[in-house]
Amino acid sequence: MMSLTGTPFFLATIALAVVTVLLPLLLWSRVRGPAVVRGAVRMVMVVLAQAAAVLSVFVMVNNTNGLYDSWADLLGTGHHIVAGGARGRGGRGGLKKPGGDALSGL
């Protein structure tokens, strides 16, 4: 499986966007059937082209900002969040102020 933040996936989304834009240009007049069917097929082609363009922009923004590092992170199936250890009384884990007093009560 391709990496979510990798260059090959980004280039694949760009190629998909180009193909889905060229498809309506090449097939627009070749669509056959009743007017309703022709209209529906043409609408689907345009919507797919728009969705592919938006997908490539989303991938570019994700690669630039590092919003999602992996497919598991994007889909919410990863276990990257680890619970913190017990910190004890006061939640400071026994850390003391520079003066030597415990930080309890903060």
Question: What does the model show?
Answer:
- The chain is mainly alpha-helical and 106 residues long.
- Helices cover 54% and strands 0% of the residues.
Largest sheet: none
Unreliable residue runs:
none
Structural class based on helices, strands and sheet pairing: mainly alpha
Overall form: elongated
Helix content: 40-55%
Number of helices: 3
Roughly how many Å is the radius of gyration? 26 Å
User: What is the element string, with H for helices and E for strands?
Assistant: HHH
How far the N terminus sits from the C terminus, by CA atoms, comes to: 48 Å
Question: What is the beta-strand fraction?
Answer: under 5%
What keyword list fits this structure?
mainly alpha; elongated; 3 helices; single chain; 0% strand
Short description:
The chain is mostly helical and 106 residues long.
Helix-strand layout with pairing:
Elements: H1 7-27, H2 35-65, H3 71-75
Helix pairs in contact: 1-2
